[in-house]
Design brief:
Layout: E1 7-8, E2 13-14, E3 16-18, E4 24-29, E5 35-40, E6 46-54, E7 57-61, E8 67-73, E9 80-86, E10 92-94, E11 102-107, E12 114-118, E13 126-131, E14 140-146, E15 148-153, E16 160-164
Antiparallel strand pairs: 1-2, 3-4, 4-5, 5-6, 7-8, 8-9, 9-10, 11-12, 12-13, 13-14, 15-16
């Protein structure tokens, strides 16, 4: 069986990521039930699924490939939080629980911290935060304001790549 990887042709973005050890996870639509996280071998053979289908976006495998971070909305109010799921046991849990939206998780090089964007400031700019440990109760440090979301974090944690959004004439993000 060959696999077709879904992608956004307008944004030239494919929905997959590979871990350093070679495991690959692909995100594919699962009908009306939302997105189903699906495992594939390098040759394209589907080997299983991870968790239940849902409104899962922005998946990021940990450097070791043993956890996956993603953004997931609260079904009651639509508020987005960062969640993680254990890739071996399939157990998912929220990593952030804030009344503001949190999104675009990025793992630290050692997999012990998480960088993410949030609209906690209530302003047009996005605040970048660092979750200091992989526990919902762990401290979150505000890092900086930007008009974008993090896309990568250097292994030594000194550099952050941010995908910035242009502003329109009124100063709001497009």
């Amino acid at each position: 069986m060959s696999a077709s990887i879904d992608y956004n042709s307008a944004g030239i973005g494919a929905a997959f990521q590979a871990a350093a050890l070679g495991r690959v996870i692909v995100v594919r639509p699962a009908g009306t039930g939302g997105t189903q996280l699906t495992w594939f071998e390098r040759g394209g053979q589907q080997t299983g699924t991870l968790g239940a289908p849902g409104d899962i976006v922005q998946p990021r495998l940990s450097p070791a490939g043993n956890r996956l971070a993603f953004t997931f909305p609260d079904p009651k109010n639509g508020n987005r939080d960062v969640w993680t799921i254990d890739t071996d046991r399939g157990i998912a849990a929220p990593l952030t629980r804030n009344t503001a939206n949190d999104w675009h998780p990025v793992w630290s090089g050692d997999g012990k911290q998480m960088l993410f964007a949030s609209d906690r400031g209530g302003k047009p700019e996005t605040m970048l935060h660092i979750k200091t440990a992989m526990d919902a109760a762990a401290e979150e440090m505000q890092l900086l304001a930007t008009f974008g979301s993090p896309t990568d974090w250097s292994r030594d944690r000194r550099w952050i790549a941010v995908d910035e959004y242009p502003l329109n004439q009124s100063g709001l993000r497009r």
